[in-house]
Amino acid sequence: MKTWSALLLVAAFIGLVPLPAVADDDPVVARVNGVDIKQSDLDFAATEVGSKLASLEPADRKRVLLQYVIENELMAGAGQTDALDKTDTFPARVKYHERRALRDAFFDAKITGAVTEDEAKKIYDEKIVEVKPEQEIHARHILVATEEEAKEVAQRLKNGEDFATVAKEKSKDTSAEGGDLGFFTRGQMLKPFEDAAFALDVGQISEPVQTQFGWHIIKVEEKRDQPLPTFDQVKSAIMAQLVQAKAQEVVTSLRDKAKIEVIDPDIKKAMDAAAAKAPEEELPDAAVEELNGNN
Hints:
With 295 residues, the protein is α+β, with helices and mostly antiparallel strands. 54% of the residues lie in helices and 14% in strands. The protein contains eleven helices and six strands. The strands form two sheets. A four-stranded antiparallel beta sheet has the order 4-3-6-5. The chain has a two-stranded antiparallel ribbon with strand order 1-2. A hairpin with a 2-residue loop joins strand 5 and strand 6 (214-225). Helix 2 crosses helix 3 (58-81). The longest helix has 27 residues, at 231-257.
């Protein structure tokens, strides 16, 4: 059932972290009440919470992981002091986490470890030739409140005044220095503005253009094809897609060979209903989407 495989696929992204350090390269990074915290502890923590830290810089990521492990150790130590490891439910908790650790080890060995950078590079090479470069333009604008003001500005420019100088004096858009908007592609600006800008030749200045913000005078400084993404820019996304596909392949094979019995009638009913509503579909080609999405 797709419901079960989806759970593993979600976990796949949590597994997209460096493998834990080996014994010969496992330095102590901190101590809590005399207990060593090693690099491998941070690596194991990353397999648990690493996906939530993807937006952090490497140094901040390591700092947060260490804080997480320190808090784990503090609470574990307090739990041991309170003899919580002697309760009736503790062995079942340990058993669950032991199975989870085996699942993680299997995932690292048979799924993450089975995906190579060479495979990702092959997909990149196949897909990048299909991507059509998108044109982008570098433009300036002067934004004023009324059409009359826009016509006055247009006339000053026709008389030879410098666009950037007039923009500094007249434009309501103070965030654009000298009216400079930098490079942009289609779909990033309001349509009337976009249509007028892309219709201009390099160096040409538009007639007044109205949008919801007011009246614009636009000048195109440069046109070019947006550079295609390099392999390094999209490698992580392609690798993630390959890991996801490999995870689905592996779990499907395991499920097909297994005898799975859902004993609880309510859960079985819910799972059957979910499977009926969401039949298995092919995974989207994230490699193509990522390549196109970078344009």
